[in-house]
User: What shape does this take?
Amino acid sequence: MSVTALRDFDGGIIGYLLIGTDNSARKRAEAELLKAGALQSAIFNSANFSSIATDEKGVIQIFNVGAERMLGYTAAEVMNKITPADISDPQEVIARAEALSVELGTKITPGFEALVFKASRGNRRHLRADLFPQGRSRFPAVVSVTALRGDGGGIIGYLLIGTDNSARKRAEAALLKAGALQSAIFTAPTFRASPRTRKG
Assistant: This one.
């Protein structure tokens, strides 16, 4: 509430003006901002997700603890230095650029553009990519790519959130192996299912 003293020409107080506003909308907005901030903090500080934010040219600006754990680089080693394409399988990036060029009828340059081209056109993009952690063998990841836009609608950067897909790949391989084994058993010419005989 705002309180203002009302004075006469001689400066003497002749009354007070009290102006009040309903503060509930502001409180709700503050609560939503706090909630969004907590959610954003949880995402960027999670060790289970690789969160990488870039500028509009693809140069890494944010590299969270999950990215450090998953990729073996420190934030200081990559921020303002490289793009996410530099830690992706180069052959895969080239193949993706070629496939996009054919699909869209326009030349897509191998590199960061191949990773974000569809996201830059307004589509959230989910990629399966092989990443090259520092000091370790490569591993499969699922990466969600989103274009970040400023107030005027122009792209100001990209957000890439990745998860390690190794466990799923191992599970799929185990299922394929089990299915192949089962198929081999039931289709083998020497295998005969004999009915049980009843004693009696």
Observations:
- The mean pLDDT is 77.
